[in-house]
Structure formats: structure tokens, C-alpha cells
Write a structure and sequence with these properties.
Elements lengths: L1 H18 L2 E2 L5 E10 L2 E9 L17 E2 L2 E2 L16 E7 L6 H16 L6 E7 L3 E6 L4 H9 L10 H8 L1
Parallel strand pairs: 6-7
Antiparallel strand pairs: 1-2, 2-3, 4-5, 7-8
Length: about 170
């Protein structure tokens, strides 16, 4: 119980930090995107950007300091996410009812196929269509070519959108 009470202030501080972006001296805005706490290790995924909204990729370990009760927690290590070898899974729910005009529907399909081409090999695109039923179109294991073919084959001819069923399938 004592350990839980000691962790509670740290958890509250992390929640507060996640709730509001930090401002650094050189107009660098650092937005925490994710936190993983596996004691004694705390991992933060940060999104630093400059005052023009561009990604600030010159972030250095000296730019970051971590404290607990005003005591330094040691030297943090920084690794660009692309160098970790970790991938991201992106979930898209795509309405295939007739409510989306044809030109817009075609542009969405074209954009999805083009975006799939830009993903890193370890990234995954999961695509679920919402129509009369929820259909898993891409499960993330497809090649860019196979994904493009499946996306191109999607039609918007359904009469209804079963949104709840799609969320349930995605989860």
C-alpha cells in the first residue's frame, strides 16, 4: 500500500503533463503522445515541434531532464521512434454506405492506398468497412500491392451504416 501511495503523485504528475503540452525555451513544444510505466522504467513517447509546427528532429538527451520530488532521476536516453524497430498499427473505419458522394469516395480510397505506400515495413494498416455489416478488408498483414487492390475494390453501395458493429469488430 505504501508503494501505491508513493506512485500516486508520480501518476498524477504524468497525467497533468499529458494533459498539457510543455513549452521549452526555444519555442519548442513537446507533446507527450504515450506513456508506459513498468517500474523502475518509465517510457515517454514525445512529439517535439518548433513554432512553425514542424517536427523538431534535433532533440538531444541534454534537452531532457526528469525529476521526482525535485531529485534527478538519472540521465534519460533518447531514441528516435523510427530507430526503435517498433511499428504502429493504424485502424481505419470506412463508411461504405451511399451517403458519401462518388468523387469523395474515390478520393478517400486513393488517399488510403497512397498513404499505405508511405508506411514503414513494421507498420500495419487495419481497414474495416462500415455498411450493412462490418467487414475486415485489411488486417495489417497485406503487402502494399495487395492492400491497394483490396482498397480499389471497395464499393459504396450499402444502404445503412452499422457503426456499433464496426467498433465491436475493431476492438
Amino acid at each position: 500500500m505504501g508503494r501505491l501511495i508513493r506512485l500516486l503523485p508520480l501518476s498524477l504528475i504524468l497525467i497533468l503533463l499529458l494533459g498539457m503540452p510543455a513549452r521549452a525555451e526555444n519555442w519548442l513544444q513537446v507533446k507527450p503522445e504515450q506513456v508506459r510505466i513498468t517500474l523502475p522504467e518509465v517510457k515517454l513517447w514525445l512529439y517535439p515541434e518548433n513554432d512553425q509546427g514542424e517536427i523538431y528532429d534535433a532533440f538531444q538527451p541534454d534537452d531532457v531532464r526528469a525529476f521526482l520530488d525535485e531529485r534527478p532521476l538519472g540521465d534519460p536516453s533518447l531514441t528516435p521512434y523510427a530507430e526503435t524497430g517498433a511499428g504502429s498499427t493504424y485502424f481505419f473505419l470506412f463508411d461504405v454506405s451511399g451517403s458519401i458522394p462518388g468523387e469523395t469516395f474515390a478520393a478517400i480510397k486513393q488517399g488510403l492506398a497512397a498513404w499505405k505506400q508511405t508506411l514503414l515495413p513494421q507498420d500495419k494498416l487495419v481497414l474495416i468497412t462500415l455498411g450493412e455489416q462490418a467487414t475486415l478488408v485489411l488486417d495489417g498483414s497485406e503487402s502494399a500491392i495487395a492492400a491497394t487492390e483490396r482498397i480499389a475494390a471497395i464499393q459504396n453501395s450499402e444502404k445503412h451504416t452499422r457503426l456499433y458493429d464496426s467498433f465491436e469488430k475493431a476492438i
